[in-house]
Amino acid sequence: MNIPMVDLKGQFRELQAQIEAGFREVCETTQFILGPRAKAFEEEVAAYCGVKHAIGVASGTDALHLALRAAGIGPGDEVITTPFTFIATAEAISYVGGTPIFVDIDPATFNIDVNLIEAAITDKTRAILPVHLFGQPADLAPMAALCEKYSLKLIEDCAQSFGAEYGGKKSGAFGDLGCFSFFPSKNLGGYGDGGMVVTDNDAFANKVQVLRNHGSRVRYHHSTIGYNSRLDEMQAVVLRAKLPHLDDYNRKRRRNAHLYSERLKGSPILPPAEDGKGSHVYHQYTVLSPRRDELQQVLTAAGIACAVYYPIPLHRQEVYGELWAGRNFPVAEQVAEQVLSLPMYPELTADQVHRVCDVLLDAVK
Ligand SMILES: *Cc1c(COP(=O)(O)O)cnc(C)c1O
């Protein structure tokens, strides 16, 4: 039995008629960009997240970039974030001329360690950018208190946490701005690139709307240097078909995660921890083992996919190496050597989860 990391065919089969009809409609109306479907999807996401504004953009990376620009982050500014994330989080800070200031992570959740943030704040700090890694919300309340105390913006990287909740709010609704990715394998995935910025702040929403469309609100009138970054109508068709099922998809991810954890409990393979502060939507199911490389080989030999997210923390990347030379983030470094993400998607069956666990437990017996 071969088991992939993620299988997107199941959701396509279920929604095929609706998606194909939607694609045909878009082709017949020939309105591909800034059309009614993307607009309707923005309204649906705003309602789902319980926020005033949702603005579709071309990717999750662009969502972060435009959110940072809308929040007024620019050259010389420092933004505090985690070194244990996908490069896009830090790239977006660099795009606006800012400097990513890394703070080590919590060994249990892999999210930024809130106890270390205050010591990293300087008079150049303008924002905190937590990532809800693998689908578990970072501990936002203490960060919001620091933002209040030091007049900083709180910008959430929700690329992996669509549908998660924290403090009675949906992921993205807690901070000043929330940034989503609709990369195909994300919890809510399109059939190409896409992203969204959510906010309750009218001025930020207005800025993102102008920035995503060449700095223009009225056609051929340009008030600022903007970008070409829109969510297209084809993506909106797919995302609108999937959104009503998202809570069910996330429930199934949690069910699969809990089955994995039940099986791995008490073994030398450490299951992921839920900190109980928010709801985890398991974009990834990620275990820790000092024998990670060996387990990866055993799974691969058994036809079971697995992956290392992420093998190199950002302060060790060539691009940020010079800036962070000689600085250590021991937790991020150790976690990067031990993490292993196992197959995870809503349609994964209990039999498949058992098969993965049988192979893993046999390897460490
Ligand atoms: C996927 C991802 C992004 C970037 O999203 P894209 O849509 O691929 O540009 C940003 N941050 C994190 C944590 C991600 O996982």
From TrEMBL:
The modification N6-(pyridoxal phosphate)lysine is found at residue 186. Coiled coil: none annotated. It holds the Pfam family DegT_DnrJ_EryC1. The active site is at residue 186. GO terms for molecular function: pyridoxal phosphate binding; transaminase activity. InterPro entries: DegT/StrS_aminotransferase, PyrdxlP-dep_Trfase, PyrdxlP-dep_Trfase_major, PyrdxlP-dep_Trfase_small. Keywords: Aminotransferase, Pyridoxal phosphate, Transferase. GO terms for biological process: polysaccharide biosynthetic process. Belongs to the DegT/DnrJ/EryC1 family. This is DegT/DnrJ/EryC1/StrS family aminotransferase. It comes from Trichloromonas acetexigens.
